[in-house]
Request: fold
Amino acid sequence: MYSERIREMRIRKGMSLTDLAYKSGISVGYLCHLEKGKRKNPSIEVMEQIAKALDKTVTEIFF
Reply:
């Protein structure tokens, strides 16, 4: 599931949740909920922001 991929990719890049939040423009709380699977179905805009911050494509992370 994408929640695990976000966390895995973030850690591989040596980023904290705060780092990813800053780089993506998404709140730490929202990212935390995505990583834990508590938040589902992010918008395409959110997916694009996360993918860009992790230097990945939306498909690599979410599909």
